[in-house]
């Protein structure tokens, strides 16, 4: 039995062996394959990486498991081999607060002030019909702020009252009409490139949760960016500091999570060097907790019922050169004949100039998964159309340099699930079976994920310390029992 665990073996053989009763028994493993830590963290994106460092700063031992070969999640960067410049085509900016500044400083990563004006002057075009549109947006008005202020509990999470306001469960276009939001305000809320799905029919709750006061502060100037336009640098700098507590290209294949704090968590992970057993007091999940990602963690029926309500959306990004498009402009896909000129999906959201001359990044919004080939084909057609519409002096063939799939993106639940208490149930899972959920389930953007992690940290630390106290008490009791037995035998 032991040889199945300590060798890299066949996955099939392992998966069968993992069903055995003693799969999580440390005596079935070679000691070199056992990892003991205070906390196991799954997912090396913004949430998992930040939590790892903050727990280490508090003197806790941590192991971080990431399924890809890099840290950073949606912070993806293309490095141009010709100029040496960088293009971020995922995460763009951060809130200018002490948590962000301290984390960047902690990892020796420089920051710079950022202005959204650097994205270029907007040119609106219908990428499908092939026409330029004379659109202007006055931006968000006080009417939006007044509505946002009704729901302060959406600024730093989704802790809803019971019953939840039915207004929050309206499709956004219905809310706009019900409260007579100004046309320019409506357009501004729908023109946000990072909001995914069918923009008109997104639940109002998610509009306010995404475009909250923190985001408004960023857009008004309280925003920072990596000084090298390389948001991946933060995570590259993290890797050396995390050795040997970091396992890249590794996945959880089986898990046992006890309801008792003293028993903690046991995870079997598959790494490039073979299978390992993690024994930890607590577990933090920085991954999207959709069922597809959670099947290896041994869900109980309650967890399964709650997590089955979560769904994520497809979203894609890439970098393209040789466009023939003028720099200094961003090219936005807007429909000529739809409500509020919202482009139908699936479609390219737009092309934004980068700080590397001639390179643009783009995003693609779709209700269903789409292949890279189809996305780049549509992006190519849109660029060729824009070349003609803008009277480009050259009409070269676009070259696609980088591509990323961000799914499952912007995690949501249905209106019925929310009415039935989904978010109360989800918050109720925090700490259940020694497991904690971070990431973008309750907030959007790295800055807010880090803020929320700070809020959760005292509870997580208390759970770690409680587990330690219970173990110490159990050991003392065992020692006393053995001593008494020894005295009885001696008599």
The chain-level mean pLDDT equals 90
Question: Would you identify the regions where 5 or more consecutive residues have pLDDT less than 50?
Answer: 1-19, 473-478
CATH architecture annotation name of the domain at 2-73 and 230-310 and 415-476: 3-Layer(bba) Sandwich
% residues in beta strands: 15-25%
The portion of residues assigned to helices is 25-40%
The rounded Rg comes to 25 Å
The CATH superfamily label of the domain at 2-73 and 230-310 and 415-476 reads FAD/NAD(P)-binding domain
CATH topology of the domain at 2-73 and 230-310 and 415-476: FAD/NAD(P)-binding domain
What gap, in angstroms, lies between the N and C termini?
42 Å
**Total helix count?**
16
The SS-based structural class is alpha+beta
CATH class of the domain at 2-73 and 230-310 and 415-476: Alpha Beta
Q: What can be said about the biggest beta sheet?
A: 7 strands, mixed
Number of strands: 21
Rough outline: globular
């Amino acid at each position: 039995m032991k040889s199945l665990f300590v060798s890299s073996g066949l996955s099939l053989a392992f998966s069968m062996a993992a069903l055995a009763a003693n799969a999580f028994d440390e005596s079935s493993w070679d000691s070199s394959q056992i990892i003991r830590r205070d906390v196991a963290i799954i997912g090396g994106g913004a949430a998992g990486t930040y939590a790892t460092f903050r727990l280490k700063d508090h003197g806790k031992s941590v192991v971080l498991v990431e399924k890809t070969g890099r840290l950073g999640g949606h912070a993806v960067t293309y490095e141009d081999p010709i100029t040496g410049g960088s293009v971020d085509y995922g995460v763009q900016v951060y809130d200018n607060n002490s948590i962000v500044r301290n984390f960047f400083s902690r990892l020796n990563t420089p920051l710079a002030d950022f202005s959204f004006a650097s994205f270029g002057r907007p040119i609106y075009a219908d990428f499908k019909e092939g026409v330029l549109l004379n659109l202007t947006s006055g931006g968000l008005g006080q009417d939006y702020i007044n509505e946002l202020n009704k729901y302060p509990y959406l600024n730093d999470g989704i802790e809803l009252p019971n019953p939840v306001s039915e207004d929050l469960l309206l499709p956004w276009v219905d809310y706009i009409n019900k409260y007579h939001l100004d046309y320019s305000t409506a357009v501004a809320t729908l023109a946000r490139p990072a909001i995914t799905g069918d923009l008109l029919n997104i639940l109002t709750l998610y509009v306010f949760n995404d475009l909250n006061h923190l985001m408004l502060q960023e857009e008004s100037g309280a925003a920072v960016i990596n000084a090298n336009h390389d948001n991946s640098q933060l995570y590259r700098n993290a890797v050396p500091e995390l050795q040997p507590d970091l396992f890249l290209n590794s996945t959880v294949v089986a898990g046992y999570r006890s309801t008792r704090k003293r028993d903690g968590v046991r995870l079997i992970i598959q790494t490039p060097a073979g299978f390992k057993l993690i024994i930890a007091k607590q577990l933090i999940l920085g991954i999207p907790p959709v069922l597809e990602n959670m099947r290896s963690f041994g869900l109980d029926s309650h967890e399964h019922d709650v997590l089955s309500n979560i769904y994520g959306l497809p979203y894609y990004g890439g970098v393209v050169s040789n466009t023939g498009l003028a720099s200094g402009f961003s090219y936005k896909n807007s429909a000529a004949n739809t409500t509020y000129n919202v482009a139908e999906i699936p479609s390219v959201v737009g092309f934004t100039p980068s700080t590397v001359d001639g390179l643009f990044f783009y995003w693609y919004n779709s209700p269903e998964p789409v292949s890279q080939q189809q996305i780049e084909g549509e992006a190519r057609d849109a660029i060729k159309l824009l070349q003609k519409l803008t009277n480009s002096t050259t009409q070269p063939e676009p070259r696609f340099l980088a591509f990323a799939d961000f799914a499952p993106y912007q995690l949501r639940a249905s209106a019925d699930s929310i009415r039935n208490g989904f978010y109360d149930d989800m918050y109720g899972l925090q700490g259940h079976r020694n497991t904690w959920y971070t990431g973008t389930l309750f907030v959007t953007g790295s800055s807010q994920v880090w803020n929320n992690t700070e809020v959760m940290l005292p509870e997580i630390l208390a759970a770690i310390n409680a587990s330690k106290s219970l173990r110490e008490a159990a050991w003392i009791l065992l020692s006393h029992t053995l001593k008494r037995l020894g005295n009885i035998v001696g008599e």
